[in-house]
Amino acid sequence: MSMSRERGARERLVVIGGDAAGMSAASQARRMRGPDELEIVAFERGRFTSYSACGIPYWVGGAVGGRDELIARSPEEHRARGIDLRMRTEVTRIDVAGRRVRARDLESGAESWTSYDRLVIATGARPVRPELPGIDATGVHGVQTLGDGEALLDTLDRTPGRRAVVVGAGYIGVEMAEALIRRGYGVTVVDRGREPMSTLDPDMGRLVREAMEGLGVTVAGGSEVTKILAGDDGRVRAVATSDAEYPADVVVLGIGVRPETALAREAGLPLGAHGGLLTDRAMRVRGHEDVWAGGDCVEVLDLVSGQYRYVPLGTHANKHGQIIGTNAGGGYATFPGVVGTAVSKVCDLEIARTGLREKDAHRVGLRFEAVTVESTSRAGYYPGAAPMTVKMLAEHRTGRLLGVQIVGREGAAKRVDVAAVALTAGLTVERMTSLDLGYAPPFSPVWDPVLVAARKAAAKVRATTSA
Amino acid sequence: MSMSRERGARERLVVIGGDAAGMSAASQARRMRGPDELEIVAFERGRFTSYSACGIPYWVGGAVGGRDELIARSPEEHRARGIDLRMRTEVTRIDVAGRRVRARDLESGAESWTSYDRLVIATGARPVRPELPGIDATGVHGVQTLGDGEALLDTLDRTPGRRAVVVGAGYIGVEMAEALIRRGYGVTVVDRGREPMSTLDPDMGRLVREAMEGLGVTVAGGSEVTKILAGDDGRVRAVATSDAEYPADVVVLGIGVRPETALAREAGLPLGAHGGLLTDRAMRVRGHEDVWAGGDCVEVLDLVSGQYRYVPLGTHANKHGQIIGTNAGGGYATFPGVVGTAVSKVCDLEIARTGLREKDAHRVGLRFEAVTVESTSRAGYYPGAAPMTVKMLAEHRTGRLLGVQIVGREGAAKRVDVAAVALTAGLTVERMTSLDLGYAPPFSPVWDPVLVAARKAAAKVRATTSA
């Protein structure tokens, strides 16, 4: 690492963070500009690049064979494409005025400055780790990084017991519940919310809870964890809430993540209400022409509510990286925003949502009609037709689609994509009733479940509008 | 049946045709208006109402247990809802000026007039039955009606042989190929087109052919059937084309259907270039305030090409019926048109299309960029990730999506719905690259296959636009 460098025709792009957003940006910038035009230096404090954190529950559960299957591109592969990748090197300061970053080699401890012409901040997220008594007991694991996955697997392989407690009933929590079921554990999921999956309305969350209970999971809703109890050997033995104690040989924390923006804050870069960096449509940090940010460290515009949200998902991170790389490489691309789509599963239960929940709509002052319908994934007479429940919110009077939630079995979750596109396009539920969706008995009832919901929502909008 | 009736407060709605469009219209009109306000008389020449013709291949193939499972609502059920349903009664004339229809009781032969205030024409389609030597041999079957299905099953149960020839390699043809494979037949599919599934571009049809060949089907493309050969017993024994002869113990005709509009033509109602009735957006027959038409006897506006097409699909028929019933019942609803979505499968091969093929685009004067990509249904590392090929057409310069075709395995077909909604909304492929589609490893790669195609298409549009 050089303290300074000659100014010349060749510019330098510095990337902080070697995962989805950062390395997608680096790779795309490299596609736009060859090494003669643009030097690309990327810093990653960990041991891995470009891996699928979303895949960790499936690796832990055994559906995915090994850690390396989750790695989309290794450091060596990135280097072979002309990216000067510095692994185990942590950026400790961003000097925006001086256009340079300070980084520490975590092996040697050596620190130095690297100047940049263009900077990409892709520092990701850090898991929420509540300050609970006993949180550091042996056998308490997060599942955000590949290292976390390795540590958890090591515990599972060595733990004699068979009881697991998952703290948090969001996506990570329910996916980890599946993973632990698959590994033969008796699983308890503890969550503060009354129903699991608080990204759904409680009436839909109830369906998730009932299905999880049907899988043998104990779902302890409305439970605040007060402490984690360890034995004399320092190993976890139970999780205590205000009103119960759940024996545990292993504890998985799946409470969620926050944007990792300490560096950005220290550098005086603009942060939003959720602690994420604020960017413009081109993913430039606001007010900074040559600084971009993307992935789990930024807030994104929710196109339905018109407000900024924090939505740490790999699919957004990849898109951000692509857009940043294009712009940092001298091209033009924008990220219009999200509509809040997410899909997940617990064993054969599929869960999906997009757009606004009831409380989101209330919060932004949107009045709505809500309907819920039951339908099936295939024609009712076709083998394997699986039930699903679709909830749909439409704006009062205008009938504009506001959100969809789906809980069902095979074939349920990805149906939410139709609603995601409809939200993007601002379609009304009345217009949706005539959508030309694919129909054949093995794939859908003659009225696709999303259309059944749209019909009911449209009827309700009509009825309340004429009143 | 009365020759005339008293004029009073109660109006009479007459429906011609007791299947999807007609009975959906009748049922919805009944929901809108009670029997005191609206009398509803429906004529059906066959023995069944409201059945799923699309389900016949699965019944023949054994996936669906019995005929009655395909019947959504029986004559008795319709009558119980206050619809005066006359089965085995064929309408032989429509007297538009006199506001009456003439019908024949097919059992007794008796004919009489029934007057109407409002009329719904839902006469459906008739199968194409080429005038070939030998076409009437025993063992040659269509598969349009439940009666056809029964007759075919009877032949299959009684036929000692094991060789089947399917004439036509469209949806019906490929679905019947699957059904016959499941019944243990050696199957040959003969089609005039070079590749099967002419609703796809030939490069995508080739993938279907290769997959069908992989299933052991002989696909004889570019073959015109010249005659059907029968033995001395009158039973089919082979199908002859211009250059080959295929032994056959049973022959299934899956060549397609045409609108059944002889009655409408005789009544002077407006027909389009494809022989279907022409309606306005409210599904009213053009120029006729109190006459509606829907289902397989009408042409529909293709929203992508701006031209009228003939698209006989049960899903449209149901939508038409719903809209007609609302309007005929005094409400208001419209059918904006179709984008040309269709999904099908042959065993585990899934096939989907929406929008324009290359030749459709040429025909309407649209210049386009076409791209094809390979992707998978799930994250590459997730078990069951199945390959799929996505072809995408975007308009030159504007980048507006024009069409998508998908051939793949599990999880491929219904992805076309995203494109169907994007076509409806007029999205560009550039905008599509940022669509917020559901992502989790069991459901999609981090870039959904449709987004992978959109990225490639957007890049091509950009490259050719800047040139």
> How many runs of DSSP E, i.e. beta strands of chain A?
25
Distance between the termini of chain A: 71 Å
Number of domains of chain A: 3
Radius of gyration of chain A: 24 Å
Give the overall average pLDDT of chain A. 95
Structural class of chain A: alpha/beta
What general form of chain A does the structure show?
globular
Most extensive chain-chain interface = A-B, 66 and 66 residues
The name of the CATH superfamily of the largest domain in chain A reads FAD/NAD(P)-binding domain
Strand-residue proportion of chain A: 25-35%
Strand order of the largest sheet of chain A: 3-2-1-7-18
Which regions of chain A are unreliable across 5 or more consecutive residues at pLDDT < 50?
Answer: 1-5
Q: What would the CATH topology of the largest domain in chain A be?
A: FAD/NAD(P)-binding domain
- Would you state the CATH class of the largest domain in chain A? Alpha Beta
Any guess at the CATH architecture of the largest domain in chain A?
3-Layer(bba) Sandwich
Helix content of chain A: 25-40%
Oligomeric state of this protein? homodimer
Largest sheet of chain A: 5 strands, parallel
Count of helical stretches of chain A: 12
Produce the secondary structure layout.
Two copies of one chain form a homodimer.
Chain A: E1 11-16, H1 20-32, E2 38-44, H2 56-61, H3 75-80, E3 84-87, E4 89-95, E5 100-105, E6 111-115, E7 118-121, E8 125-127, E9 140-142, H4 146-158, E10 163-167, H5 171-182, E11 186-190, H6 202-214, E12 218-220, E13 225-230, E14 236-241, E15 245-247, E16 250-253, E17 257-259, H7 262-266, E18 291-293, E19 300-301, E20 308-309, H8 314-328, E21 342-346, E22 349-355, H9 358-363, E23 368-376, E24 387-395, E25 401-408, H10 416-425, H11 429-432, H12 449-466
Parallel strand pairs in A: 1-2, 1-7, 2-3, 7-18, 9-16, 10-11, 10-16, 11-12
Antiparallel strand pairs in A: 4-5, 5-6, 8-17, 13-14, 14-15, 19-20, 21-22, 22-25, 23-24, 24-25
Helix pairs in contact in A: 1-8
